[in-house]
Amino acid sequence: MAPDSQSIDGLVQQITTSNNLEALAHTLRTSGTSGRDVREFILASSMSSGQDPLSVLDLRNNTLGVMYILSARLNIYLNAQSGVQRPPWAIVTQFCEIFDPEQARLAPERIVMLAKSLTRYAQEQGKLKLAIPLLYSLATRLPITLSTLTPIHHILLLTTLQARHITPEITRLLIEHPIDDLYMYSNIYPDHNLSYIDNLVYHYLGGVILTKTGNYTAAIDYFETALTAPSTTNSPPAGLQLEALKKLRLVQCIAMGGPQPLPKYTSPVLTRILKSTPYQNLINAFPGSLHAKDRGEGPSSGNNRLKQLVSKDRDFYASECNLGLVELLVAEAPKWVIKRLTETYVTLGLAEIGRYVGVDDEQQVRALVLKMIESKTIIATISDLGIVTFHDAPDTADVSVEDIRTLLGDLPSGTNLTKISVPILLEAVQVQSTHLAELDMEVGRSKEFIAKAIKTGGGISSALFFLRHPGIVQHTRFRYVYGWSRKWVRTRWGFS
Amino acid sequence: MANGPPTPPPTTDVEIQDEARMSDASALAVEASSDPASESTSNAAPQPPLSPPIQLQDPYQLIFPRIAELSSQKRWIELIDIAEMTEINASNDQQLSRLFVIVPLILAYLIQNDLPIAKLVLERLPIDIRMSPLISNLGSLTKAYSAGAYEQIYSKANALVNLVAQPEFQQPELAQVINAMVECFLSSFRDRTFLLLSRAYTSMTLSLAEMYFGLGADELLPIAARHGWAYDTSTKVLKPVPTNETASFFPPAASSLANFNFIAQSVSLLEM
């Protein structure tokens, strides 16, 4: 057979008659004697009979071919518009819903190309939100697991935010499937590969979306991932990482009462820069923070100080698009004042609490305390005379994992540890250890790790030493992976 | 089922309208999602509309019967999914019939206690839809709910019901769905409040309880008594009894073999 890959008719014939997908993929990928651009044009043209090749091919069984044609046509239509017939949107939609992932994985860069061009097309038509379900389908069905990051993921999140259409589906994807793997492939178009920035953007935007939907613990994890993504040595951290740090600090104050210690592998440059911004003062003035200077003085002055700081730098926060979070922070501050009161008092009247918090109206204070009891931030009961009694955590805790985080918050050194029932902790630790063991095995198996171990340790024996003692991963690049996997495991623990 | 009496032919105006909408909905449900997108974009690909343009351009009204059906069956998650899909695929989101979908969507989020997303939905609406009395009522209900202002929640819910009961409100089916959903919301809200108060209060005055539940004393006391709350008539004080909420912790009863494996494995690792 003399395969004619220089005309669209020949290509269509090959696509429909080929039995060997690998060979077909190779044919489609190599442009042969004609250049790459000419090949794109060929793919985008209609058949010699005037027919649309897409009407001849089956969207599911000929996924590979359709992928090439669709992406070429959309791309050229958007860039050159030279008489190329735009594929009907209905076909694009249908393809994204029913394409065959196995075939698509033979040429993933075309799917990425398709994702980018369809987003651009939707945007130019002014209907950006139409792209969201298509991108979702592409991003979730292309990789083998849902926790694999593709170049499409960050486009999906960006589109969601730009179209202002956050759905429970996206939130579920972010919470239940945190990223633990990357979808890498080699291809001839370097700009469709997964890049470092994609990872940053995805986790940063993921954190933003989760903050908007009120899932603060998950948002914190996402911001931390964006923040601690390793860069090559000696290069400064990305600006996006500084933004992630700012938002992380704000959300930590809102959700956990104060800034939590950062992971050890965070770039110190970031913390240094943050210290010189107004954010640092704001965080220090927050009631749950360790530095809060008003621990001894009249407590409600702390709240006023917070409001003063905010009004002073209001424009600054607005220009950084953090004003909403900052105002939320001020609104939540009274709760953490009350939380600190639980360390000192066993019972307290509502009026007294009001005095501490700076709120006069008893009904408001009552509502505030009730809200805190509802969210399990404190454990307390109110009597009919308006006396609030604070309790310790019960012995047998039917405390869910979420509650453990808020109750523990920032564990003060050594002082009264809350009693949580042993079976819960044991189960959580078991799950965590199995995950960790799996990841360790995976890391230990990888070629790069073994090569590095041999280089640094000297000899095969040390490589074997590392293999046999999973968990001892020192001074290699995979410090990142280890820390990352620990974080991933923490996230799993939090949400499994 | 085959021997049941035949359905009487549609007589009233409403039934005729419903019938027309139902048959068109089933025929066009498939096209509704793709057509609004393609009719604005296709100039080369001929896709002749199969029915009068008015219905083609209104996916909100087309999907409403399905929403009403799901609402009567209390299948909130499916309702939310369908409503969100319609929202995404609709080409013209400025038209007022969007209310057919938006109002049940927000109410469904409130019933599911998914407050942040309900607020996000309200925020993404265009100005003129937000100004409509239905949405501004719904907005104040959501605001009251998020602030935990119990009295306001009940008064706003009542205001909403009163609004759709007015004769000027032209959409009886929508009014029906709204009434049903508000009722569901109030009942699930009262359940949640009940659990919370049992946990949070050792004793509370009757007037306070009336405020929390939005019910008068004569309706409230029997319910409270059923749950074991003691009532002291002289001081008018209720004593809640903490109910056992379903524990989120499931004891690892059946996993003893898994436990054994795990322990054996960790011990062997230590040995190495």
From TrEMBL, chain A:
Entry keywords, A to Z: Cytoplasm
Signal peptide range: none
Superkingdom classification of source: Eukaryota
GO biological process per UniProt: ubiquitin-dependent protein catabolic process
Domain COP9 signalosome complex subunit 3 N-terminal helical repeats: 43-269
UniProt feature coiled coil, ranges: none
Gene Ontology CC: COP9 signalosome
Entries under PANTHER family matching the protein: 26S PROTEASOME NON-ATPASE REGULATORY SUBUNIT 3/COP9 SIGNALOSOME COMPLEX SUBUNIT 3, COP9 SIGNALOSOME COMPLEX SUBUNIT 3
Record-given protein name: COP9 signalosome complex subunit 3 N-terminal helical repeats domain-containing protein
Organism: Lentinula detonsa
Taxonomy of the source species: Eukaryota, Fungi, Dikarya, Basidiomycota, Agaricomycotina
Automatic annotation (TrEMBL), chain B:
Biased composition (Pro residues): 1-11
Domain (CSN8/PSMD8/EIF3K): residue spans on this chain: 106-243
Comp. bias (Polar residues): 35-45
Pfam families linked: CSN8_PSD8_EIF3K (PF10075)
InterPro entries: CSN8_PSD8_EIF3K
Record region (Disordered): 1-52
Gene3D superfamilies (UniProt xref): 1.25.40.990
Protein's name according to its UniProt entry: CSN8/PSMD8/EIF3K domain-containing protein
